[in-house]
Amino acid sequence: MTIQEPDFWGEIEVDGTVTPSMILKQQASLLGVKTNHLLEAEVRTHTYYDSFRHSFDLVVPGLDNYTYELFKVSHGAKLYPVTPLSEADARHNGEELLTEDDFKRWVHHKLSSPDTKRIVANLLSMARS
Amino acid sequence: MAEAHAVDVVVLAESPMDAGILIEALNSSREGEFQLPWAQSRYLTIFTRFSREFLQPVFESERVSIRRLSLPARSEVLIAAVHFPSKLHWSGDSQSYECMELAKQIAALEDRVGHQRTVLLGDFNMNPFESGLVAAGGLNSVMSRRTASRSTRTVQGREYRFFYNPMWGHLGDLRGDTAGTYYYDNAQHVNYYWNVFDQVLIRPDLAGGFDSDKLKIITTVGRRSLVGHDGRPDATDSSDHLPIIFELRF
Questions:
Q1: Among residues 63-122 of chain A, which lie with CB inside 8 Å of chain B?
Q2: How far away is chain A from the Cα of B160, in angstroms, using its nearest Cα?
Q3: Cα dist. B167→A36, B196, B220 in Å?
Q4: ipTM score for this prediction
Q5: Distance, CA of B63 to CA of B89 (rounded, Å)
Q6: Is residue A1, in this structure, part of any structural domain at all?
Q7: Which residue range is the domain that position A51 belongs to?
Q8: Element (H, E) at B141
Q9: pTM for this model (two decimals)
């Protein structure tokens, strides 16, 4: 006779939430294609005490992998809210990005901003020279 | 100042002046002497008397610029320049966390380039004794060259690389006519008045070539004073921070 061990786990459901890291990596994967791989974007993730930190880097392979850290964000185990970590973001917005949609809007704004376009253009010029 | 002290590398944090105007001024006595290597950091401007090819950036952000100084017939050196956010905008905790991020970034780059000959300098907007500068997981900088010569220390099984921070020796007015690089007065119970926010930190592998007598906080350039009658930095005609100068042989 076999004894059925009790299962304390119950049903494990996979949450459909898109993580901040997935959103960043998806956007990072687009840059190389858009620039003929003269520029690449990478997401570095590390833990810091009870938070996860993601750095969004622009990398120029042709310049010995020169790296420009475009921005950093942080979140806890609950994924949202996400906190932008640059001083300008903290000062001007002063608020956390509460939901996936808020975060997507923020990333869109950041990547399409004049500052980002200027930096990308400069790095492309350097990569081509 | 660059001319008077025969400076090889000039690092400016949050300079309001256009780099083109600055380089004209730097080259006013000898055309083409100073060059401006390409870079992206918004808050840092770096000029060099060396050819710009010898000072290439490897990692940058708005407030950090880390470059390889590769001079012919010399061992390569990493020069990391920083301008950390002011205490007006960031808490001490946030500044400390930023030190941890920077320490990790520097260690990663040292691993990549294969040496630890790194000098870190700039406006930290923190004093040498603050936790971000001192903590093992922060910049792990100590006041003693001998202590730093141990190279690393281990905390909870994790190994952290030392920096030697000679700016500890410039807290207070015993060494000169100024007690720091930045003056701040407010009506709080704890107020240092003078702060040493502008610092140079040196890895043990380079500390042997550092001459402590040549590390100075500059208060005058020729006949021009950088401080007012009260001895405080003259923010109107110069800067609210006093510059530092040092010499490193490698």
A1: 63-70, 72, 86-88, 90-91, 119, 122
A2: 16
A3: 47, 7, 19
A4: 0.88
A5: 14
A6: no
A7: 20-128
A8: strand B141-142
A9: 0.91
